[in-house]
Amino acid sequence: MAKSTLTFLYLAFLFGIELNYLRKSYIHQERSFVSAEVGSSVTLQCSYGTEAARYYWYKQSLGQKLQIISISYKFAESGTFHDEFKDNPRFTVENIDGKSQLSISDLKPSDTGTYFCASGISFVFEFGEGATVSVKNPVLENTAWVRQSESGAVQTGSSVTLNCTVQTGSCGGEHSVYWFRHSGESHPGLIYTHRGNNNECEKSQNTQTHTCMYDLPIKNLSKSHAGTYYCAVASCGQVLFGNGTKLDLESEAVSLSLVYFLSAALIFTVILSVLLAFTLHKMHKRNCCQTSGYFCSNLFSPLEILLLFCDLHYAAVNANQLSRSRRHRKSSECVYSAMTQ
Ig-like domain spans which residues (predicted)? Predict the structure, then answer.
């Protein structure tokens, strides 16, 4: 019985530790989009908590699975590289005080992709946000390029179509086009893929290049659609990114402007109604008192006149009745009436 109790307490203790790890994030990688030229260098950083025992670096190329780059232990200054990254002097890893740095020198077009840092504690494995690296080749960009539609502000609930024009160069072969969305809340994520389609491309006879146009329609826009959309093409052994199209949603600003406008219109209408009521009261008082001062005390008050405006149908009927009765009275006689509820 005692042995069973100790086993239960031990498992509960381990289970409590696992739950604590699940609730607490112990890895941090800054979201970033790095654009660099061939031959330059980049350094990617990642911070780990004190609980992390092993550090990992992964690479994900467009349309490909994750590739492990290196594994290093907590107190090791460098890591062990795997697969195609093994014995490659262009890739180095340095670990200092809970931080890991992945440096890539002499960049090549094949280095384009998203790099993730990761760490594992017991049975819990966590990835960082990821950093996307785009390597551009100035020589190839003279024949291959990506252009996107301009950024702009759109309203919530409307629709928009993003355009991407791609020139694939003269190397021939099929190409793939990818759409990414990058917002402040998440790292760039793949949202759509175009495979090579000759129906969308035009071939230039002089330069033997292909110019293709791709559209990304987005309907019923909401706040979740806000962000920067990137168009990328994988062709000729390289990946080219566009400059991005930023969508800003204007929902709250438009609603507040409409509320302010309607409020100002309502206030103006009320003030105008009060002024008209007082003006009409003074006009009736001046005209009728010149005829007979005896009836001046029976004039409508400004409040009664204002209430009279609120019931136009009754006022119209009452006015017709008064106009018919005036035909049988003398022109010098003033007739006053009051509205009763």
Answer: 39-117, 138-255
